[in-house]
């Protein structure tokens, strides 16, 4: 293993954690520090609700294409699922269709993380990414399942998607698992909106992007991705492969 690169990765991890903590403190103490996020958030939310299915698709692409700012793609699917005509009180949108369209947009957005990992392969090191690829290939059934599981839950997908891109793992396997998982997840969100439970609405509806909770979620998501990349560099994947082959 390249020990110089290991030490460099340790330093970068420490600097990243310090930078995120500084950002978190500044965003809490000085709300205007992140006020442009709130403006963008409200604009995208209004446009998405106005455009309906197309808006759900667009906001799902944007909401999954970046881990730096929390765009309300889940809230849009929830609201559209329960939206009614004021005059007739008839539901406007089909929750199944919202789930499929939003799931497609979410999958496209998540693949940007794959492309970032794919393009940053050289920064991590050919030997390390190749070893990780061999480790992933030695578990052909587990990897697609984990990608699907992350997509079907609110857990940040980039934790795994970025390393898979760096390892040049089959893009269509990632995309397919993402499409199925995201569609299932967003169908459930849209049907939650259709049912209209108050406590579900308070959890999944539009949230204030400038709140402390939003900042904590944002910083935690970025930190998880940084940690995943750090582990990709730090773990001796060749040793893990050899050990798994030695197990009876």
Q: What's the topology here?
A:
Blueprint: H1 3-29, H2 35-51, H3 53-65, H4 73-82, H5 95-119, H6 121-124, H7 126-137, H8 142-151, H9 158-166, H10 171-195, H11 198-204, H12 212-234, H13 237-246
Helix pairs in contact: 1-12, 2-3, 3-4, 3-5, 4-5, 4-10, 5-9, 5-10, 7-13, 8-10, 9-12
Number of E-type strands: 0
Task: Characterize the biggest β-sheet.
Answer: none
- Work out the helix count: 13
Order of helices and strands: HHHHHHHHHHHHH
The residue fraction in helices comes out at: over 70%
How many angstroms does the end-to-end distance come to?
27 Å
Radius of gyration: 20 Å
Task: Sum up the overall morphology in one term.
Answer: globular
Strand residue percentage: under 5%
Q: Which structural class best describes the helix and strand composition? A: mainly alpha
Mean pLDDT level: 77
Structural notes for this entry:
Helix 1 (3-29) runs antiparallel to helix 12, helix 3 (53-65) packs antiparallel against helix 4 and helix 8 packs parallel to helix 10 (171-195). This protein has helices at 3-29, 35-51, 53-65, 73-82, 95-119, 121-124, 126-137, 142-151, 158-166, 171-195, 198-204, 212-234, 237-246. The chain is mostly helical and 248 residues long. The longest helix is centred in the N-terminal third of the chain and has 27 residues, at 3-29. It has 13 helices and no strands. The two termini are 27 Å apart. The model has no long low-confidence stretch (mean pLDDT 77).
């Amino acid at each position: 293993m390249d020990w110089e690169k290991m030490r460099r990765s340790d330093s970068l991890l420490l600097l990243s954690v310090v930078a995120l903590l500084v950002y978190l403190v500044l965003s809490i103490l000085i709300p205007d520090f992140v006020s442009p996020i709130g403006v963008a958030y409200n604009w995208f939310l209004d446009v998405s609700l106005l455009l309906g299915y197309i808006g759900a698709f667009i906001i799902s692409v944007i909401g999954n294409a970046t881990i730096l700012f929390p765009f309300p793609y889940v809230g849009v699917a929830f609201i559209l699922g329960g939206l009614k005509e004021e005059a007739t009180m008839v539901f406007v949108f089909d929750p199944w269709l919202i789930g499929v369209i939003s799931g497609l947009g979410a999958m496209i957005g998540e693949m940007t993380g794959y492309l970032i990992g794919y393009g940053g392969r050289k920064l991590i090191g050919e030997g390390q990414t190749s070893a990780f690829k061999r480790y992933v290939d030695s578990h052909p059934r587990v990897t697609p399942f984990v990608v699907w599981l992350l997509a079907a839950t609110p857990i940040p997908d980039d934790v795994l998607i970025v390393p898979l891109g760096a390892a040049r793992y089959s893009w269509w396997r990632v995309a397919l698992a993402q499409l199925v998982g995201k569609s299932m997840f967003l169908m459930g969100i849209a049907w939650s909106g259709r049912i209209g439970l108050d406590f579900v609405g308070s959890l999944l509806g539009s949230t204030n992007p400038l709140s402390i909770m939003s900042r904590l979620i944002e910083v935690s998501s970025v930190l998880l991705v940084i940690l995943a990349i750090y582990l990709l560099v730090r773990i001796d994947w060749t040793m893990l492969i050899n050990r798994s082959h030695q197990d009876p």
